[in-house]
Structure formats: C-alpha cells, structure tokens
Design brief:
Blueprint (H helix, E strand, L loop, with lengths): L2 H4 L2 H17 L3 H17 L4 H8 L3 H15 L1 H23 L3 H12 L9 H31 L6 H36 L1
Helix pairs in contact: 2-6, 3-6, 5-6, 6-8, 7-8, 8-9
C-alpha cells in the first residue's frame, strides 16, 4: 500500500480543495504544465502505471480535442492550452483522491467536517454523500463514455465525437437520477434514526 493510500481522507480532501483553488488562479501554461507533471508523479507514487493514468483521461480526450481548437480560435492558443491543461490536472487530481480512498471513508470524513453546520439546517449525511459521489462521478462518466463508444462501434455507427455526445448525456442523466434517489434514501435513513433517538 502506497503512502497516498495510507494517508487519511481529511488531508487528501484538504489538499484537493487547495490545489483546485490554486489551479483556478494560475494563468501561465508553463506553471499548469508543472502542476500536471506533479499530479502524474502522484499517480506513480501511488503505484499506478500508464494504463491507469490513460484510463482516467482517454474517454475525455475527444471533448478536449473539440475544446482546444474552439478555445484557441475564440481566445488565443495560450489560453486554450491553459484551459486544457487545467481540466486534465483537475480531473487527474480528483481521480487520484478517489482511487486511493475508499468511498465509505470519504463519506464519513465529509460528514464529520459538515457536522458543525447541522444547526444551520445542513444535512451532513446528504451533503457528504453528494460530495463523495461527485468525486466518484468522474470515473462514472469515463466508463459511460467507453460503453457508448464500444456500443456504437459494435453497431457500425462510427465513433465520431459528436455522435457520442447525446447518448453519453442521456446515460449520465440516468445515472444522476439514480444518485439522487440514493441520496434521498440515505437522508431518510439518517432522519429516521435521529427521530428514533
């Protein structure tokens, strides 16, 4: 087990929040490229090879392939490179946290962090589950994109990026509905437990 696997969820979530905030403030592509290199080094430290790294970003490459020229044409190539590098780095950072942390540990940590907000009407169980699932949702979108692409290729429909968008959106919306139902069920369970006490 790597040092990142052994690290408690709290520090990892704090580091992710700080890194995400910092990356949004970076305006130099060279600095963003260095941040991406550090993130890739984190994957290596956690024991993940090129295959695992490629699996995190491969399904999103078609989106970035569309975004880069559009952004470059509208706002300049330097900004386009910055945006693409920022997206890649943020996705990989979130994936690194979820790959090295159990979902149960993420939820428990988020619930503890949100507990002081309960008197203000915040439901720690519901919000904690929602945040944990949001982190987990990136790999879900990746997997759905792979399934759509494989299904269309099997039917001989081609794998053009634009042909993937509508089916992918429909699948993601369906998954989002299931996630919402899970959150409501968990919230109801916690509310019922609180009433019984």
């Amino acid at each position: 087990m790597s040092p990142l696997h052994r690290c408690p969820p709290g520090p990892k979530l704090a580091a992710l929040a700080l890194a995400g905030t910092g990356l949004m403030l970076v305006e130099a592509p060279a600095i963003m490229l260095a941040a991406l290199a550090l993130t890739l080094a984190g994957f290596r430290l956690a024991g993940f090879g090129r295959a695992q790294i490629r699996a995190q970003v491969a399904p999103l490459l078609w989106m970035l392939a569309i975004l880069f020229p559009v952004q470059g044409w509208l706002a300049g190539w330097s900004l386009a490179a910055l945006v693409v590098l920022r997206i890649l780095t943020l996705i990989l950072l979130a994936a690194l946290v979820t790959l090295t942390t159990r979902t149960e540990d993420l939820i428990a940590t988020l619930e503890r962090l949100l507990a002081p907000l309960a008197p203000l009407g915040v439901n720690p169980a519901k919000v904690g589950l929602a945040l944990a699932l949001a982190l987990r949702f990136l790999p879900v979108i990746r997997d759905e994109a792979l399934r759509v692409r494989e299904a269309q290729a099997a039917r001989g429909l081609g794998t053009h990026p634009l042909a993937l968008i509508l089916p992918l959106i429909l699948r993601v919306l369906k998954t989002a509905d299931e996630v919402a139902e899970a959150i409501e069920a968990r919230s109801g369970h916690h509310d019922g437990a609180a009433i019984s006490r």
